[in-house]
Design brief:
By secondary structure, the protein is mainly α. It contains 16 helices and eight strands. Strands 1-2 form a two-stranded antiparallel sheet. Strands 3-4 form a two-stranded parallel ribbon. Strands 5-8 form a two-stranded antiparallel ribbon. α2 packs across α6 and α2 packs across α8. The radius of gyration is 28 Å and the shape is elongated. The two termini are about 35 Å apart. Bound molecules: arginine (ARG). The site of arginine has 9 residues, from α6.
């Protein structure tokens, strides 16, 4: 017998059914635990407003808790006939509890149900990604403390430009990660609102207590406009993947820099054996594949975002079945981002700076601009000083060695800047920790009736 919620006796061609269901039975396994959490909040709210009896609320929450645990253990299968996680949950509850299960859909549509499950899923993803970014920033902090004074030639246009330092390079990575954390906290705010009650997208003429659902799930707000709640499908997913692709842009630069630093011609860094892989034909080789695949996966993230933009960006208001297709690039993007965040700490910890190589690459020409500034300090207009230095270089009459100490002042500023950045991050960390605590406490309590 069909378990489809909308089955009223007419027949749909099996090929049409398979086509419309698509990959939902697989992709919805990621949403199912979150839908259990959302459904438990919904059941408790229905109980509170008198649309469900107290004993039904208890048994629904208990069964949803069991299904949640099975899902987490990977034991749940969604059949083609069930279409998606929403039907799988309702059929399970109805099979186990009869009428109580048949009441769970009171006042909601799969349209607002999937909105809530997706937001809870994204909230969990954002929290974990933020925690991993904090961990990476902390690792970078340790590297800054270890390596700060090592010299590093600064390049523009891939040409030697000015003196720089390893500390200055680590500081840049730290700032970029801090900006990502700041943006991630904003993404957390975007998804932290209750869409349930929007129904199919036009509100529901039942006395639902949407604020209570928000409180039970530690959601900070209730979506005011039911149409906008529905229109947020795709928008919030795009925001999340945009954030991830911006994270990709940061990681891509870091991995590119390290690849260049690692080139035989540079040898600014070495990578330990654990971070490199071999060649099947060239016996001498150890390759930085991990860095290349970090770069490659950052590109994949942009691909996921692009797919999401095409699928969801061109639609008129309200629900359209196209929106089902936002889940695949979302889940794929989340997995790719997770794999990047998992491996990055190893890379940060593993880089070995080659002191001697770095020192030997600090050629005099890097100090040319400092020479012009030395003249400026003696009162020469900058453009004149610039020309004088250029002429000295052309004539081979340079003495840049005396300028090396001028970098010390910059190194001090780098250290101060890093201190400030650490303080800023400490503030963001405590905001994150407070949000994570509130959210996880609420989620962990949702299946247990008071
Ligand atoms: N699987 C569907 C999705 O992800 C669930 C919502 C179905 N709603 C509907 N009106 N057919 O969008």
């Amino acid at each position: 017998m069909s378990t489809r919620l909308w089955d009223k006796g007419q027949t749909t061609d099996a090929r049409v059914l398979a086509f419309t269901v698509g990959n939902d039975p697989q992709v919805d396994l990621y949403l199912l635990p979150w839908d259990c959490i959302g459904s438990a909040a919904h059941a408790r709210m229905l109980g509170a407003v008198g649309l469900l009896e107290h004993k039904d609320v208890s048994s629904l929450c208990a069964k949803l808790g069991l299904l949640f645990e099975q899902a987490v253990r990977g034991e749940v299968v969604i059949s083609l006939d069930q279409e998606d996680c929403h039907t799988a949950i309702e059929s399970y509850l109805t099979k186990e509890l009869g009428d109580a299960g048949a009441r769970i859909h009171t006042g909601r549509s799969r349209n607002d149900q999937v909105l809530l499950a997706s937001r809870l899923y994204m909230r969990g993803v954002i929290l974990s990604a933020l925690e991993q970014l904090v961990g990476i920033a902390d690792e970078i902090g340790k590297r800054f403390a270890m390596d700060t004074d090592l010299p590093l030639p600064g390049y523009t246009h891939l040409q030697p430009a000015m003196p720089s330092s390893v500390g200055m390079w680590w500081h840049a990575q730290y700032e970029a990660i801090t900006r990502l954390i700041e943006q991630g906290l904003a993404r957390l705010l975007s998804v932290n609102s209750n869409p349930l009650g929007a129904g199919a997208g036009f509100d529901t003429p039942l006395p639902l207590n949407r604020k209570l659902v928000a409180e039970l799930l530690a959601l900070e707000r209730v979506d005011r406009s039911p149409i906008d709640a529905q229109n947020s499908r795709g928008r919030l997913e795009r925001e999340l993947l945009f954030w991830f692709s911006e994270m990709g842009a940061v990681v891509e630069k870091l991995s590119w820099d390290l690849q260049m630093f690692h080139m035989r011609e540079f040898q600014f860094i070495s990578l330990p054996d654990e971070l490199t892989t071999g060649s099947s034909i060239m016996p001498q080789k150890r390759n930085p594949d991990v860095l290349e695949l970090l770069r490659g996966r950052c590109a994949s993230l942009r691909g996921c975002l692009t797919e999401l933009q095409w699928v969801s960006g061109k639609l008129p208001s309200n629900y359209h079945r196209d929106l089902q297709l936002v889940k695949e690039p979302l889940v794929r993007g989340v997995q790719v981002a997770g794999s990047i965040l998992d491996i990055l700490p190893l890379v940060v910890q593993g880089v070995c700076w080659n002191k001697q190589e770095l020192a030997s690459k600090m050629h005099d020409e890097l100090y040319a601009t400092y020479d012009a500034f030395r003249r400026v300090r003696q009162g020469v207009p900058f453009r004149t000083a610039y020309k004088e230095t250029a002429a000295a270089i052309a004539a081979g009459k340079t003495d840049f060695a005396a300028l090396r100490d001028d970098f010390k002042e910059i190194a001090q500023r780098t250290a101060l800047g890093f201190q400030e950045a650490m303080q800023e991050l400490a503030g963001l960390k405590s905001r994150l920790a407070a949000a994570a605590r509130t959210i996880r406490t609420a989620e962990a309590a949702i299946f247990c009736m008071p």
